[in-house]
Design a protein that fits this description.
Layout: E1 16-24, E2 30-39, E3 44-48, H1 55-62, E4 70-75, E5 78-79, H2 85-89, E6 92-96, H3 107-111, H4 113-117, H5 122-135, H6 140-143, H7 153-164, E7 171-175, H8 183-200, E8 203-208, H9 211-217, E9 220-225, E10 229-234, H10 236-241, H11 246-252, H12 256-259, E11 276-277, H13 283-288, E12 294-297, E13 303-306, E14 312-314, E15 317-319, H14 324-332, E16 338-343, E17 346-352, H15 353-361
Parallel strand pairs: 3-8, 3-9, 6-7, 7-8, 11-12, 15-16
Antiparallel strand pairs: 1-2, 1-4, 4-5, 9-10, 12-13, 13-14, 16-17
Length: about 375
């Protein structure tokens, strides 16, 4: 996204590489121990683990709020330890749990903070602020002149994200940004965050203690343990199906078989071409010529009809691309042998209950 509102330009991106990074304090305490990982351009890397495992310290070393004891941090080809700290931080957005908005400034002035520091003129700054408020789902006419105390917790977090994106930095650091809001607002913020990332494609390092949040948001997840040791760094399906150590298996939890359903999606392959009938069909005759216990009445609102009494029930449905978790929820909420998968307004096939359960079982045995 162009910082002046100009459309069509590719968003800036940067790869981050941590090479054997270590942080040891004067008392001998090791917060991060020989940590090596990379974050691809435009990816979301989530750091997750128990308190004291070095998640936040690692993030703060990336923008040098904490200086590493040894190792290298490479950002877009530059060694961060050799770059001026102020200049480095202006290349990054930073969002924290408590937001940190200036209480005496309006929403517009808060979002304009970094562009002002960079010396942008008033017109360019104003256009950027209005663009960002629209981007994070806050109508400028409604929110631009409000003060932080006039906003909900979720709205303040949106302003914090907009401020972090002020000068269109290639890197975004987010330290438990949604932890302080209620569960409903948190779910909405996560969904909005993913929508936003689809548009801006920043390179993001995201800290959380919540494994479900990590699985939902991360392209890759770094599981860390006390002392700053990296236990596993993998994409969510791999982490859930093949935890590399006992620590990771315990941290992800025995219910990882169900969690994996949230990272698997309904696709066109393997759907059952279930026997279908029209609204006006003679189902008795069709059952006599068909071995199925259920027939599918196809239409805008698909229904199942039973062999035993020819009774009809609404069918559970799932859109192509939905998660298997959503498909399972729809299956459990309705009668019938599976969920009807639809795309572009038409029925594509049926995903049976056994297929959904097999998707969970592919996680493999518990450790």
């Amino acid at each position: 996204m162009e910082p002046t509102g100009v459309q069509g330009a590719a968003p800036p991106r940067a790869m981050i590489v941590l090479d054997r990074v270590r942080k040891q304090y004067g008392d001998g305490t090791v917060a991060v121990n020989e940590l090596s990982l990379d974050v691809g351009a435009g990816e979301i890397a989530v750091l997750v683990g128990p308190s004291g495992c070095g998640k936040t310290t690692t993030m703060r070393m990336i923008n040098r709020l904490v200086e590493p004891t040894s190792g290298r941090i490479i950002i877009d080809g530059d060694d961060a330890t050799l770059v001026d700290r102020v200049a480095l931080r202006r290349r990054m957005g930073y969002v924290i749990q408590q937001v940190g908005l200036f209480p005496h400034q309006t929403v517009m002035d808060n979002v304009a903070t970094v562009p002002r520091l960079l010396g942008w003129d008033k017109k360019r700054t104003r256009l950027r602020v209005l663009e960002l408020l629209e981007l994070v789902g806050l109508e400028p006419d409604t929110y631009a002149k409000r003060y932080p105390h006039e906003l909900s917790g979720g709205q303040r977090q949106r302003v914090g994200v907009a401020r972090a994106l002020g000068a269109d930095p290639p890197v975004l650091l987010m330290d438990e940004p949604f932890a302080a809001v209620d569960p409903i607002a948190r779910d909405r913020l996560q969904a909005e965050f993913l929508r936003l990332q689809d548009q801006v494609r920043k390179t993001i390092v995201f800290v959380t203690h919540d494994i479900d949040e990590a699985i939902r948001l991360g392209n890759r997840i770094a599981v860390m343990r006390t002392g700053g040791f990296l236990e596993q760094y993998a994409d969510p399906p791999t982490l859930l199906s093949d935890p590399s150590t006992e620590f990771v298996a315990d941290f992800v939890g025995s219910e990882r078989t169900l969690r994996r359903l949230s990272v698997l999606h309904v696709g066109p392959d393997g759907l059952v071409d279930w026997p279908r009938v029209s609204e006006s069909a003679d189902v008795k005759t069709l059952f006599e010529s068909n071995d199925a216990d259920w027939l599918l009445i196809d239409g805008d609102e698909p229904r199942w009809v039973r062999r035993t009494d020819h009774g009809e029930v609404n069918a559970g449905t799932a859109e192509l691309g939905a998660t298997l978790s959503d498909a399972l929820a729809s299956y459990l909420a309705h009668e019938g042998p599976g969920v009807v998968v639809r795309g572009e307004g038409r029925t594509l096939g049926v995903l049976t209950g056994s297929q959904i359960l097999n998707g969970a079982r592919r996680c493999g045995p518990s450790r």
